[in-house]
Amino acid sequence: MSELKLGIIGGGQLGSMLSTAAKKLNIKSVVYSDDVNAPAQKFCDEFIFSEYDNKEKILELVSKVDVITYEFENIPFETLNEINKLKPVVPKPSVNRLIQHRLAEKDFINKLNIRTTRYVSIEKKSDIETLEDFLPGILKTTTMGYDGKGQYPIKKIEDLETLNIDFSKGYILEKLVKLKKEISVIITRFGNNKYEIYEPIENTHKDQILKYSKIPSEISKKIFDQSKDWAITIAEELKYIGTMCVEYFIDRNENLYVNEIAPRVHNSGHLTINAYNISQFENHVRAVCNLEKISLKKISNAKMINLIGDEIKPYRENLKLNDNEFLFDYLKTEIKEKRKMGHITTLI
Ligand code: ADP
Ligand code: MG
User: Fold this and answer.
1) Who lines ligand 1 at CB under 6 A?
2) What end-to-end distance do the CA atoms of the chain give, in Å?
3) Given a cut of 70, is residue 2 above it in pLDDT?
4) Is it true that domain 118-175 has CATH number 3.40.50.790?
5) Distance 297 CA to ligand 2 centre (A)
6) N or C, which end of the chain is more exposed by having fewer CB within 10 Å?
């Protein structure tokens, strides 16, 4: 039996599902979160609550585990870098630093000759005034954004007057893509040309938050192949270890664009728990703990719906499910509007 202990920074639902996957592999998990109510504490073996820059508490985590990973990307680089001097942080901190910055991330992808949306760095309000070309567009903070937070749609330059944007932060302005579809590709890389990749997942967002995912995606063979090839190129170039996700846009002319990379397990991959022999979470734990790579086999087609805010309520009150439906309640104590509370995967 394995004696390994895995440290997980971040205590949300992704941390919970990583802990559950670790347990299945006989690996103990220690979750570290700055949220005293972090849901993952109900799934892990040990929980440490503290700020991400508390040196003493971080050292306590380090002393308890063999390897450390993370479930969200907005962790200070310094924190990850310091930990990495003592115990391996996987994926490596430099990957996280690159991807948590939208500008650096997009520059990196373009250098690989992979298409992204058109974008430009914005440092002050007057920068936008000469950029009609990029409108309609979306102004996004370069760091710390998720679920559409820190994003402002800009149709015309005058919109800036009413939006009251804090320009002390860095932004990028992205040209709006006329979306036909959004897909994502999840890949787990174990080493040089050693990876497992899931088929492209089709995603539907509501108010910039993921609402539905399904496999198979209704896409052409060309997009199917290109999206997988690009994910492999990106993972190899980063020398990534673990599970990562590439989010894509497909426009009305069938062009594929990388939207963003998530250096972690991803919401669109929740259906892999029920639809594949090995989930994205188990694969992540296998890769970061240097365990055996097992060939992926798809068990079933599937669709997933996120339960946001109050939508969890009827299920908590015992709404009956069919045999092919699987409910995941993240056990978050407080129900909040726009908060991901759980999901249901249906095998189809
Ligand atoms: P987050 O980091 O919050 O996930 P994203 O950049 O992925 O931010 O944006 C969230 C969603 O907003 C996307 O999945 C897409 O639906 C929409 N969106 C973002 N940027 C664009 C764009 N340039 N063109 C069209 N839609 C966009
Ligand atoms: Mg996104």
Assistant:
1) 117, 138, 145-148, 174, 176-177, 179, 182, 205, 208, 247, 259-260
2) 36
3) no
4) no
5) 27
6) N
